[in-house]
Amino acid sequence: MAEFAARHQALLDQAIAAARSRAHFSAYPEAPSGRIYGETAKAEAEAAFAALLGKPFEGGEALVGDERSPFGPALGITYPALPPATLVARAEAAAPAWAEADPAARAGVLLEILHRLNRDSFLMANAVMHTTGQAFVMAFQAGGPHAQDRGLEAVAYAMEELSRVPTTAAWHKPAGRDTLRMDKRFRAVPRGIGLVIGCATFPTWNGYPGLFASLATGNAVIVKPHPAAILPLALTIRTARTVMAEAGFAPDVVQLAPDTPEAPIAEQLATHPAIGIVDFTGGPVFGARLRGLIAGTKPLHTEEAGINPVVLHSTADFAGLCRNLAFSLALYSGQMCTAPQNIFVSATGMDTDQGRKSFDEVAAAIVAALDELLADPARAAGVLGAIQNPGTLTRIAAARRLGRVLRDSAPLPGEARTATPLLVEVLADAEEAWGEERFGPIAFLIRCPDAEAALRLAAQSTKARGAITALVHSTDDAFLARAEAAFAKAGVALSENLTGGVFVNQSAAFSDYHVSGANPAGTSCLTDAAFVTNRFHIAMVRRPPA
Amino acid sequence: MAEFAARHQALLDQAIAAARSRAHFSAYPEAPSGRIYGETAKAEAEAAFAALLGKPFEGGEALVGDERSPFGPALGITYPALPPATLVARAEAAAPAWAEADPAARAGVLLEILHRLNRDSFLMANAVMHTTGQAFVMAFQAGGPHAQDRGLEAVAYAMEELSRVPTTAAWHKPAGRDTLRMDKRFRAVPRGIGLVIGCATFPTWNGYPGLFASLATGNAVIVKPHPAAILPLALTIRTARTVMAEAGFAPDVVQLAPDTPEAPIAEQLATHPAIGIVDFTGGPVFGARLRGLIAGTKPLHTEEAGINPVVLHSTADFAGLCRNLAFSLALYSGQMCTAPQNIFVSATGMDTDQGRKSFDEVAAAIVAALDELLADPARAAGVLGAIQNPGTLTRIAAARRLGRVLRDSAPLPGEARTATPLLVEVLADAEEAWGEERFGPIAFLIRCPDAEAALRLAAQSTKARGAITALVHSTDDAFLARAEAAFAKAGVALSENLTGGVFVNQSAAFSDYHVSGANPAGTSCLTDAAFVTNRFHIAMVRRPPA
Fold first, then answer.
1. Cβ of A518 and B191 within 8 Å?
2. For residue B474, what is the nearest residue in chain A, using CA coordinates?
3. What is the ipTM of this complex?
4. CATH superfamily of A2-173+180-304+524-543
5. In CATH, B2-169+181-304+524-543 is 3.40.605.10
6. CA distance A96 to chain B (A)
7. Are B161 and A529 an interchain contact pair (Cβ–Cβ within 8 Å)?
8. Domain A308-496 sits in which CATH superfamily?
9. Which of B48, B206, B141 is nearest to B382 (CA)?
10. Contact criterion met (CB below 8 Å) for A518 and A493
11. Which residues cross the membrane (chains A, B) (predicted)?
12. How many angstroms separate the Cα of B253 from the Cα of each of A479, B266, B272?
C-alpha cells in the first residue's frame, strides 16, 4: 500500500501542478500504438475481449446483462446483480478501513488502479467500442487514456483539498491575565457511500471523475452502469477490486451494481440513507427526477444535456472553419455532450477571407465539408462510429420534418447501426425545433436577423436550456468580447475561431473545465474544487491540554 | 477602492494564514472596552440607538417592522419594504460592475465594511440585545467582533479559492511532429444573486458568513432578515451600502429585504431564477421546505437545528464539570444552536475525583451548579439574557410534563421575558421526549443502561436528528477514542473534558469548524472550502494563438 504511494508520488505531484497551471498535461499516452502499449497488446486485447463474450463475466446468482454492439452482435455477457440492501451492507462493511487510511496511501492505491487500467487500454477500447458505438480510435482514447486522465485529475483535486485541513492546532487565546488553551485535532471524514450512475456513451470518461473523487476522499463507491454499457465499468471495477485486495483493503470498497431497464435500481440506491453522494451522467428528465428525490439532502453532481451553440459572425479562414465544424458535427455521430447542435448565422451571411458569403453559401459550404469528410466510407466509419441507441434513428426521422433539410442523414454501408449528420435549416423563431436537445447527428442552421441576434439567442438558450460548449467565429475583437461576456454569464466554455486540429467537442483534463454547473447542462464541473469539497466533512476534537 | 485593498491587505493575509493553521486568531477585539473602542463609544451608541427608536429607519413607501425588545419595549422602527421583483431588478442592475471587479479590490471593500462595523460594535450590541434578548456582553461579542471575524473568515476562504484559478494558460499539445496550441483564459464568474435569510437569535453571527462569502465571490446579495431581528442587519447593510458607494459601486450590490410574518417573501425570493445561492439559518421545518422548493437547482447553505448531546462517562474534576456544564445550559437561556440539550448518563452513575457518583448525585450536582450560577439576580441576568420568542415559554411549560423535573424553570425578577433552565430526567427509551429539538432553556438528563449505551444513543441521535456540538467527559482514553470515532462519523464537533473557561457552546472563527454539513443540523460548514467553492463557476475561453 505504501509502496503504491511511493511509486506514484511523482505523477501525483505533476498532476496537482498541472491542474493549477492548466497547461497541457497527460499521464497516459493517447496513441493506440504497439510501441507504447506493447506490440502484442492489440491482438491480445482482441482475444481477451472475444473470450469475454457469450458467458457470465463472473459467477453469481441473479445474472443480468443484455448489451448489444452497435456494430452488430449481442455481447451475451451477464453480470451478477445484487439487491441494493446487500450492496449497501457490503459497502458499509468495507468502508471504515478505507475511510481511516492515510489520504496519501489511498491516492497511491488509486493511481495503481489507473496505471493498470491504462495498461489494459486496448481491452477497454474493445469494451467501449462495442457498447457505445464509438469507432476504435475514439473508444481507445476517450474510453482509455483520456478517461484515466480525468480520474487522475479528480484524485489530484481531492488531495489538494484534503491537504488544506491541518491535523492539529494549538489554540491559545489571551483572556485577561490568563490564557485559554485547547488542543485541537482535525480529520477529513467521508460523507458516506458514493453512488456513480453511468451513461451509455462515455461510461468511463464520465464515470471516472465521480468514482475517483469519491474514493480519494475516503468514500466507498457503488457504480451503477447504464444497462447498455456495463462492460467498461465492470472491467474497471474488476481491476479496482484486485488492487484494493492487494493493498489490504476489502474489495467491496468498490462494487458494480448492474441492473436492467425492466427493474432499475438507481432511484432506490440514490435515496438510500447510507448513500452520501450521487454522481449522475445522463438525460435531463432523470436528472430532474433525482434532484427532486434527493431534494438537497446530499450532494448530487450531474452532467445532463445541453444544446451547444455555434455563432458564425466572420472568419479569416472560411475553408478551415467549414472543415473544423464538419468534423465536430460528424465525430461519433454527434453523440458527444460537447457536440454542436445549433449553428446561428445571420440571414445576411458573413464576412470571410473569400469575401462575403450569403447564408445559403455558408450552408452549402458546411454541407460540402461534411460530404468531403464522409466521402470515403472507411474514413467516414472511423469518424462517425455507430449509433448507440436505436431511438436516435427515430429522432433523426422526426428532425427531418422540422425545417428545410440542407443535408440528409443516411446510413453507411455495412451491418453497423450508423447515420451521417442531418443538417436542417430553421428560422430563429422556430425555437420549438432548435430549442431542445436532439441527441445524435442532428444539427440546425438557424437563420437569424443579424449576428447580434445570433449571439443573443445562443447565449439565452444556453442559460435557459443548458450547454456544455460554445463556439464563435469572428475577426472582430469587439464581437468576441461581447461573446465572451455573454457566454461566461451563461456558464459555458467558449472556443473561438477553431479552424485547425482542435475541435469544440474536445475537453482536455487538467486544462479545460468541463461543464460549469451554472446552467441546466449539469450541476458540477469536471473538475474544480467544488467537485470534491462536498465529498467529505471535517471532524474536529478539542480538549484542554494535558 | 484600491486604497481599501491596500489598507487591509495585511489583515487579509493574516486571516488566510489563520484559517489554514486553525490557531487562535481574531481581527476584532471582543472586549466591550472604552480603552479599545473609545471612552465615549458606549454612551454615544446608547444615544444613537435611542435616536433610532420609534421612527422609520429610512424613508420609503411600504414601511414594515414590529420588533419588540425581549427586555421590554417595542422598538417602533420601520423599514422600507420592496417587492421581490424590484429587489431582484436592482440587484441585477448593480451586479455586473461588482462581478467584474478584481477580487482583491472586492476584498478590500469588504474588509472596509467589516472595519466600520467593528468601529460601531457598541451600537450593534444595542441592536442585537434588543432584538434577540442576548445580554449586553454577549450581544456585543457575538453580534459584533465575533460575527465580524466570521465575515472576515468567509472573505479569506473566498480569496483562497479564487486564487487557485489561473487567469491564463498556454496549452501546447504534441501531436506527431506538430504541436496543437491554444491560448486559454479563465475567470471566476459569480453564480447569480445571493439570498441570505436571517435568524432571530444571531442575526449577524449567522448571517455574515453567507453575506460575505457571496459578496467576495462577486455576487450581489439580498438580505432577508427575520421579522423579529431586522435592525442588526439593517445597520449592517447601511454600512455596506455606504462603503460600496464610496468605492464607486452601486449601493444595490447589497440590499435589505424586510418582510412581515403575515406576508413573508423568503420563498418567493429563494425560488426566483435570478437568485443563484441561498443561505438560510432557521428551523428545520422551513429548511426542509426550502430544500424541496429549490430541489438542487442552486446551492443552498443551511444551519437548521440539532439536539446537542453530552455524554458523562467519568471525570477528574467533577466540580469543574458541573460548573462548566451549568454555564453552557444557562448561557443565553439555551437559545444557542450550540447549547447542549441531552445529557446522557449511566443509571449506575459515573466515576469522579470525588469517588463514584450515582445518577441522582450527578443530577443533584448539576442542579446545584445551576442554582449557584444563577443565585445572584444581576449575574443571572447577565448570563441568561432574555427569551427571544414567547413560544419558548410555551415549550418550557410542555417540557415540564415529559419526565421528572429535576430543576424547574422560573422567570427572573423584572420586566424582561426570562426563564432559567429547566432540567428534566427521562429514561433512555423516552425518545419522544429528548429525540427532538426543544429550543430554549430545556435540557434532559437521560438515564441510560450504561455509558456505552449513552454514547451510542448520543451518536445515533446526532446522525438521525442533527447536532452541532457534542461534549464528552471521560478519563478513559479508550472511551474517548470510541467517542471521537462515533461523533466524527455522525458529523459533529466534539469537545472533551471541558471544566474551565472554554464552553461547548463557543465556536471560534478561524479555528472551530461550525456545523459539518454531514447531519440534519445543516448542509454547510462555517467555514470550509465547500462553503465558498459553489458560489462561483469558472468561465473559460480558448482560441488559437495569434
1. yes
2. A543
3. 0.96
4. Aldehyde Dehydrogenase; Chain A, domain 1 (3.40.605.10)
5. yes
6. 10
7. yes
8. Aldehyde Dehydrogenase; Chain A, domain 2 (3.40.309.10)
9. B141
10. no
11. none
12. 28, 19, 17
